[in-house]
Amino acid sequence: MSDMVIAKLESDAINVQYEKEIIPNEDFSSKLSALREKLSNMEEYVQFQDEELRRLKEEHAETLANQQNDVSSTSAAIQTHGIGNQIMSEEYNELSSELIILNRKKYELEEKVKRLENELQGSYEKVKWLEDDQRRTGEEIWLAKERVANQDRELQDLHGQCTWLRDENARLQNELSDARKKHTEIDWSKFDEMKKIEETLRDEKSKVEWRLGEVIQYWNDAKWKIGELEAGMAHKEWLLDQANQKIFELDQMYRFRDTTKNFLDGTFLIKKQPSGDRYKWRLAMWNESSPDDLKDYRRIWFEIRAPTAKIVLLSASFVSWECFLLCQQLDNDTNRFGVWIDIPPGRYEFLFIVDGQWTISDNYEICWNEHGTHNNWRNVD
């Protein structure tokens, strides 16, 4: 019976495979559903056979147990029981073989069902692709129809333009024919008169251009002459400025000489003169040439704060550290002593002598001297 059922299932599977491409998808699905139902029934039958085989195994085990417990049974009974066991073993082997065959058939049917399902899925995808392709083809056909309609409209417009051009050409041809008819005879006398007028105008144009060139040349010459005059005036103004500057300097020098002669006559100045390979500062008596020497001098104030000092002197490099200048006590501040000195520009070092002690002032910069002590220093610009 099982062989007949399996053969029937195989036949149905072959029919489904054969009818796959010639029947609609719905019929194919129904066939596949029926085949699945038959496969389910076959599985139930196989399960029933498994249960029967298990029952036979249990009976065989029970018989073996009874055989061990019943030691006093007769040999005939043992022989009869052995024959029964042999029969049961043969039935068991047959059922096992049939079960193996059924399992193999079941596996083959499952494989066929899976293959049919895959083919069905492929058919669905192919149908979907065909539907999409049909939709795209429809869209392309619609676009092609639209393009054809647009081209038809453009063609109609071109036909209309061609018609208008033909009409316009005919109209122009008619106008040209009428113009030719009207101007068939030409008045050559007017043509000669116009030619003479043209030559006269050309001559006048040449004369005007020549005159314009002369005027432009005169204008350029005038501008060049004006430039020369302006340059000469600028040079003369510069010479005049130089002369005025010289006059001013001479006037200032004479005025300074007269002033210093009246107020500085008989005083001493600190002058710089060469002494060997270096310059040496010395006190010089005022004389007639002093104003020229004083024009570069600067009047500089030197001071120191010495609250308890009685006598404050100043010595510096501008007197070669060879003399001392007395510093006066300020009237408005008795703690400060200072002195005005006229000296030329330069860098000078100096020290104060406060009650006989060499002292530096906090008002000026400090530097080292050759004796290992400090001096004040400052620049005179």
TrEMBL record:
Coiled-coil ranges (or none): 25-182
Any one GO molecular function term: protein kinase binding
Keywords: Coiled coil
Protein's GO biological process: signal transduction
GO cellular component: cytoplasm; nucleotide-activated protein kinase complex; nucleus
Stored InterPro entries: AMPK1_CBM (IPR032640), CRP1_MDG1_kinase (IPR050827), Ig-like_fold (IPR013783), Ig_E-set (IPR014756)
Domain called AMP-activated protein kinase glycogen-binding: residue spans: 310-380
Protein origin, superkingdom: Eukaryota
Gene3D superfamilies: Immunoglobulins
Family membership noted in the UniProt record: Belongs to the 5'-AMP-activated protein kinase beta subunit family.
Reported function: Non-catalytic subunit of AMP-activated protein kinase (AMPK), an energy sensor protein kinase that plays a key role in regulating cellular energy metabolism. In response to reduction of intracellular ATP levels, AMPK activates energy-producing pathways and inhibits energy-consuming processes: inhibits protein, carbohydrate and lipid biosynthesis, as well as cell growth and proliferation. AMPK acts via direct phosphorylation of metabolic enzymes, and by longer-term effects via phosphorylation of transcription regulators.
PANTHER family attached to this UniProt entry: 5'-AMP-ACTIVATED PROTEIN KINASE , BETA SUBUNIT, AMPK1_CBM DOMAIN-CONTAINING PROTEIN
Protein name in the entry: AMP-activated protein kinase glycogen-binding domain-containing protein
Organism, scientific name: Wuchereria bancrofti
Phylogenetic classification of the source organism: Eukaryota, Metazoa, Ecdysozoa, Nematoda, Chromadorea
